[in-house]
Structure to design on (350 residues):
């Protein structure tokens, strides 16, 4: 039976969506473009990178810069798309596989419960298909389901939060049982592990799991832990930690839990509200794990913790300070395309 593929499944590419000049990124556009450019360069060392750009001129200029900095030309797949924002994790496709092939699932996206415009983002997968980039079958569904809300072990278990998947701003007509049935029938999920606790101030997603706890392999979960009793997050994250410790694998064995440090409080420069900085928003690619860092004294401890969780992969820090100002981070900006999903460009050596 096809199952939702884990992030460590071999990949063809990682998808990025470039910001428009008139988007919410306008005040900090040079900073986020510099971060995304660095991200694309790192990914291109390991595999292809798909970049949806707002117009041809932007694509040509970006391609020129990436090539000048050493990106392999056969691993750059740029195409013009019409998008609202940059969060590829939530407007990108989800993938299931069964050993015989992969299927992309083009699911509904409504701007995290109608908080932001999303009509164009909701067509992104169709646009990439029309551009000739998708090599696998594609299945469409109107069910609202964001990639950042789902963590799988690749063996039929899903880790998620009640605050997001059961929020009436997503699928108001669906009960918990309805959602579990849909997950089973569409994504091959046999067990859903629901977290009742876990929230970051400044988060627009209603507690996406990829800001809180992540599968590193079928036995291991890395999660954020707050050790400061004076921090507003302390009680909620302590309750989440207790939930994680009580979870077991399908065979009844406990998970190996890897606590990640809590970065120092990060605040918006304009109005001072707290930003949802987290080390859990890392990205797994072929041969490496890209870890968001914030110029914080806890960065090194986070890198060390994830090096222990991924001993066979390069651990690469990526400064995510430019992304956090819009309440997202590294994983939110990216979506992996598993092996067998990207059409082959002439000379592509991925």
């Amino acid at each position: 039976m096809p199952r939702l593929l884990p992030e460590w499944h071999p990949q063809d590419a990682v998808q990025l969506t470039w910001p428009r000049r008139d988007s919410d990124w306008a005040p900090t556009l040079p900073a986020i473009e510099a971060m995304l450019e660095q991200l694309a360069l790192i990914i291109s060392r390991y595999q292809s990178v798909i970049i949806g750009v707002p117009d041809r001129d932007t694509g040509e200029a970006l391609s020129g810069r990436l090539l000048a900095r050493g990106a392999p030309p056969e691993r750059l797949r740029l195409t013009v798309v019409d998008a609202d924002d940059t969060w590829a994790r939530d407007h990108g496709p989800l993938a299931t596989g069964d050993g015989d092939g992969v299927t992309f699932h083009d699911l509904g996206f409504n701007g995290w419960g109608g908080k932001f415009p999303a009509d164009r983002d909701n067509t992104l997968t169709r646009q990439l298909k029309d551009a000739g980039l998708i090599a696998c079958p594609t299945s469409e569904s109107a069910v609202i389901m964001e990639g950042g809300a789902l963590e799988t072990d690749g063996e039929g278990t899903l880790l998620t939060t009640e605050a997001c998947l059961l929020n009436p701003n997503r699928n108001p007509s669906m009960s918990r049982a309805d959602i579990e049935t849909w997950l089973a029938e569409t994504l091959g999920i046999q067990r859903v592990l629901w977290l009742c606790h876990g929230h970051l101030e400044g988060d627009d997603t209603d507690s996406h799991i990829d800001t809180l706890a992540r599968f590193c392999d079928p036995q291991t979960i890395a999660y954020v832990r707050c050790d400061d009793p004076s921090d507003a997050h302390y009680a909620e994250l302590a309750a989440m930690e207790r939930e994680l410790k009580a979870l077991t694998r399908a065979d009844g064995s406990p998970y190996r839990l890897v606590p990640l440090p809590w970065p120092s409080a990060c605040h918006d420069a304009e109005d001072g509200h707290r930003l949802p900085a987290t080390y859990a928003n890392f990205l797994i690619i072929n041969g490496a794990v890209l870890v968001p860092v914030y110029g914080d004294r806890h960065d090194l401890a986070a890198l060390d913790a994830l090096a222990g969780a991924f001993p066979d992969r390069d651990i690469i820090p990526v400064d995510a300070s430019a992304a956090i100002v819009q309440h997202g981070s590294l994983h939110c900006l990216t979506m992996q395309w598993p092996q067998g999903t990207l059409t082959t460009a002439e000379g592509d050596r991925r």
Summary: The longest helix spans residues 29-44.
